[in-house]
Design brief:
Helices cover 27% and strands 26% of the residues. It contains five helices and ten strands. Helix 2 links the parallel strand 7 and strand 8.
C-alpha cells in the first residue's frame, strides 16, 4: 500500500473519488484518512485546510499511515525556490534536507538515535513515473525546512541560498518520523514561488494542482 501525504487542495480533484473516508485513532490523536486497498492518503493541513504548518500533528499523521499498513510514503510538498534556475511550476525530487529548528521525534523518552534519510528507492519510483508522464523535474536537491508559519526574512533567504535549493515547512518533520518507524519516504516538491516573491503565490499553487493530480493517479495506476 502506498502512503500519500499532500495538501488539502487536492481533495477537490477526482483523485479522491475512489477513496473512502475514515478516522484513524492513534496514541497521538485522531487522523482523517482517505483510502482503498491500494493507497492511504493523509492531508497534512486537514481536509478543511485549517491546520497551519507549525501546528500539524506529524506524529499522528505518520503513525496513522503506519497503522494502515503502508509500505512506503510519497509526499507532495509545496516549496519556494532558492535558485534562479528552479522556476515556479517546476518539480524537484530532493535527495537530502536540512532542519535546524526543533524537529519532532518518537524518541522523546528513550535513548534511540537514527540518521534520517530520504529513500533512494522511492525517489527512483517517482522519477520513473515522471519520465512516463513526460514531466520535467530536477533529479536531486536539498530541502531546507523552516519552522513556519511565517515566510523568510531577506537575511534568512541569503543564508539558505548557500546551502539548499528549495524551502518549505513540513517535509523534514515527516521524513524524520518516517525514518524512525523504518518507513521509506520520498517527496515530490512542487515549486510555487521564488522565495521572497509572494505576489502570485496562491495562483501558482492552484495551477500546480493538475500536475499533482496527474502524478498521483499515475503512481496508483488509475
Amino acid at each position: 500500500m502506498i502512503g500519500i501525504i499532500c495538501g488539502s487542495n487536492i481533495i477537490h480533484t477526482d483523485f479522491f473519488y475512489k477513496l473512502t473516508h475514515r478516522v484513524v485513532k492513534t496514541p497521538y490523536g485522531e487522523v482523517e484518512v482517505f483510502s482503498n486497498n491500494k493507497v492511504c492518503c493523509v492531508m497534512r493541513h486537514s481536509p478543511f485546510s485549517n491546520i497551519p504548518p507549525h501546528m500539524i500533528n506529524h506524529k499522528a499523521n505518520i503513525t496513522a499511515l503506519n497503522q494502515m499498513g503502508v509500505d512506503y510514503i510519497i509526499s507532495i510538498n509545496s516549496v519556494g525556490s532558492l535558485k534562479e534556475g528552479i522556476e515556479p511550476g517546476e518539480i524537484l525530487i530532493p535527495d537530502d534536507f536540512m532542519c535546524l529548528a526543533n524537529s519532532p521525534t518518537f524518541f522523546d523518552n528513550s535513548m534511540k538515535f537514527i540518521a534520517p534519510k530520504i529513500s533512494d528507492e522511492i525517489r527512483k519510483l517517482i522519477v520513473d513515473n515522471l519520465d512516463y508522464l513526460n514531466i520535467n523535474y530536477f533529479l536531486a536537491g536539498t530541502y531546507y525546512q523552516t519552522a513556519g508559519p511565517r515566510f523568510e526574512t531577506k537575511a534568512e533567504i541569503k543564508f539558505m541560498k548557500d546551502y539548499a535549493d528549495v524551502v518549505g515547512m513540513t517535509m523534514a518533520s515527516e521524513v524524520i518520523l518516517a525514518s524512525e518507524l523504518d518507513i521509506p519516504y520520498a517527496s515530490i516538491c512542487v515549486v510555487d514561488n521564488y522565495v521572497g516573491d509572494f505576489d502570485d503565490f496562491k495562483d501558482k499553487q492552484t495551477k500546480n494542482i493538475d500536475t499533482v493530480k496527474k502524478i498521483l493517479m499515475r503512481l496508483v495506476e488509475w
